[in-house]
Amino acid sequence: MADWTYTVSVRSLCEFTAKQGSLDRRFTPSATALEGQAMQLAVLARRSPGYEIELPLEGQHGNLRVRGRADGYEADVNRLEEIKTIRGPVDLIPENRRALHWAQLETYGALIAADRGLDELELALVYVDADTQHETVLRDKLTAAALRAAFEARCRAFEAWAAQEAAHRQARNTSLAALPFPKGELRPGQRLLAEAVYKVAAHGRHLLAQAPTGIGKTLGTLYPLLRAMPLQQLDKIGYMTCKGTGRFMAMEALQALREAVPGKHLRVLTLVAKEQACEHPDKACHGEACPLAHGFYDRLAQARAEAVQAQWLDAPSQRRIALTHGICPYYLGQELLRWADVVVGDVHHAFDPYGQLYGLAQSQGWKLALLVDEAHNLIDRARDMYSAALSLARVREAVAAAPKVLQPPLRRLAGELARLGREQVEDYQPLTEVPEPLAEALQRVNVVLGEHVQNHPLEVGAMLEFYFEVLGLQKLLHRLDLHSLCDLQRTAGRVAVQDAPLNLSLLEPDEDSEPIDTGDVRDVLLSVRNIVPGHFLKERFEGFSSVTLFSATLGPPDYPRDLLGLPDDTAWIDVPAPFPPEHLTVRVANLSTRYEHRDASLDALVAVLATQYAQHPGNYLAFFSSFDYLDKAAARLALRHPELPQWSQSRSMGDAARRAFLERFVEGGRGIGFAVLGGAFAEGVDLPGTRLIGAFIASLGLPPVSPVQDQVRERLDAMFGVDHGYADLVPGLQKVVQAAGRVLRSVDDKGWVWLLDQRYRRPEVRALLPVWWQV
């Protein structure tokens, strides 16, 4: 490749060439991006009127183009500044991180000296404390010649890698431009989906794609986006999943696509969770404690070179390469994110407040396109990401574990929570704002815990974990608005924060579920429950080149558009089902599954199950709104029809028990499996052919009647108007359609779906069911 140019950011160049020594992931309190912006403004206010900020700079060295934005330049004193917002003393910043900051500042210095013809330049590395606004300034004065020499040395160290990357990108784009579909011909519905994905990628728009099971959505979205990659000059594609099973299917599809790429010029990376990749979970992440962190950056170059040559970087490959070179597999994967073409991982990497994929894409200026699988789950997943809770029991645990110096502010926080709990007239109380004494107590705990972890950087365990919890809660309280609900709830038992119902996905799955008995109040729970994650995600969607969200149950299109904060011009496609309508018989039973009618419904419900089974023996799934209802129905069926085989989902099923449940569904088998709607067996389960021939759904999937649900409905009505069903009917029927989707898995399958409630005859309910169902 004789003629090539490679563009690299100042940050990437310096991270590649200046990082050395050991990995050090010990906690040092850091500032948020918003705090960083605020501190830069505070610094600016103290500078002279001619102070320049955010200077775009660019330079060339051979085939390498280096560009970036310097924080600030003060011409009066010829000083270039790099501003870093921190918390706590500068001494806590690891030496190799400080060396990286200097490398960035020196590189900007070389660029501005060349641009403005300067002979020398004063460099100032400014650390600003986010809490006190105190500046610690480290200074140096260098000649333009010295800066240029350092810049050229850094470029020479990166040049071979840049040439390799430019060659790879050219080969990748050439191959992808002529990529054949690995399965021969696209299926009719798959082709419609693929065309829509390609078009939105070409125009930099977003897409909501409702596409039924059986058309091949994984290949139907990955293939067109890979074809669009060279034409649209995409840097990366992210395939984000809401459930772990989706990652396996994505990797299978990518393996088939990569085999079709001439020369296999496609780097595919799986993002692995830290707890799954960690080789030494009993050790802290720094060189003094973990052998795989010691000298990490000194050995990274060889591991990185081997990895990009391997190209197929699933979890086992990352582990093998990392351990060969004696470094941490998890952090090797984080480094490889910069050099992968396709990244497969959980949606939190793109949408969580601390998502690595989104953060890097913004800092590196990547043109990144996303595919989001099973996207109907994204609303609830995002609600979790932007929700938090703190219980009185959790604070009391912290008091018991804390050093004596931390106990007074923790006791005060516990006292304020307990007082509010006693004073509440009702067990549930929505709050428009946190009462001032409680807010002050929470703020004080954050301050003293922050100081404690600053002064004890080697400490891990209960206090650090609790600090993260209260810090996360306080950040959400600072941004509290209509998009989230704040409330105080007295509970019957000791509720730990991780067990608190933060959003609708964690509530009982049906409006007719039995009421919760509060009993004797022993705990108080303060919660921020996000209801409309679009407030937080809007900026994310604006930052991606293109996003396609696809699922068998996304409609109506306004529902995800409104709740996820998608742009108004987001496209919508409803792909026709590949199944002949006559292959699925859908029937409605004339009975009621409301809570108050539940016991009376059992005989009629069991009669429907037994009659259907007698007429068409085979394997069925029966879905219920709660385990209590499931248990009663299973017992009544066993009493009335003891000859009919049955098995049930239990409340605490491990992996082995789930596998055993599914293994009962064999080809030609017979029996009924009982499961809860919205649970492990209601989606993501593939039982083709005669492994499953029918489903019974004894619920509309509506959330339970509760004070929380009333508040959610009121909030959504206020934001989007009434009668939209966003709080109950739409998400409930999405669960129903997902469960029914277990029946037909291929175009040759035939089966039955019984909707066991007369409410399915209502027009507003029928309107939310698939149009091809002949109910």
From TrEMBL:
Annotated source species: Pelomonas dachongensis
Entry similarity comment: Belongs to the helicase family. DinG subfamily.
EC number: 3.6.4.12
An example Gene Ontology molecular-function term: hydrolase activity
Alphabetized InterPro entries for the sequence: ATP-dep_Helicase_C, DinG/Rad3-like, Helic_SF1/SF2_ATP-bd_DinG/Rad3, P-loop_NTPase, PDDEXK-like_dom_sf, RAD3-like_helicase_DEAD
UniProt keywords, alphabetically: ATP-binding, DNA-binding, Helicase, Hydrolase, Iron, Iron-sulfur, Isomerase, Metal-binding, Nucleotide-binding
Domain Helicase ATP-binding, chain residue ranges per copy: 176-427
Matching PROSITE patterns: HELICASE_ATP_BIND_2
PANTHER family, alphabetized: DNA REPAIR DEAD HELICASE RAD3/XP-D SUBFAMILY MEMBER (PTHR11472), REGULATOR OF TELOMERE ELONGATION HELICASE 1 (PTHR11472:SF34)
SUPFAM superfamilies noted in UniProt: P-loop containing nucleoside triphosphate hydrolases
UniProt enzyme class: hydrolase
Name by which UniProt lists this protein: ATP-dependent DNA helicase
